[in-house]
Amino acid sequence: MKRQTLALSFSLLFIAITLAVVDAFSAGGWTPIKNLNDKQTIEIAEFAIAEHNKQASSNLELDSIVKGLERYAGDNKNYQLVLTVKGGKADEQYEADVDVSGDLKALILFVPLKG
Predict the structure, then answer these.
(1) Could you tell me which CATH number the domain at 33-112 has?
(2) Domain boundaries, the chain
(3) pTM (2 decimals)?
(4) What residue stretch is flagged as signal peptide (predicted)?
C-alpha cells in the first residue's frame, strides 16, 4: 500500500511539474533580463536606437534601459526593451523589439510609449 501511495505521489508531482513547464512555454517564455547593464543588453539597445535613427533620420541617444525581457525562439533570441532616450524633443521612453540570430540583428519595433 505504501508503494502505491508513493508511486501515486510521484506521478502527481511529475504531472504538476510538467504542467507548470508547459504553461511557462505557452505564455511566450519571456523572462526578465536580470542585469540591464550587461554589455550584450546595452549593445542590443544601442543597435535598436541606431537602426531607428537610420530609418527615421533622427539623432536619438540611449540614456538608460528601464526594463527588459528576453526569450528564445528556435535559434533566435528576442528582446523587448523599454528605453529612455535623449536627443528628441524631450527625454522619452520607447519600446524596442529586436530579433537576434547569430551575428544578425533585426529591429522589429521601435515606438514611443505614452506617459
Answers:
(1) 3.10.450.10
(2) 1-28, 33-112
(3) 0.74
(4) 1-20
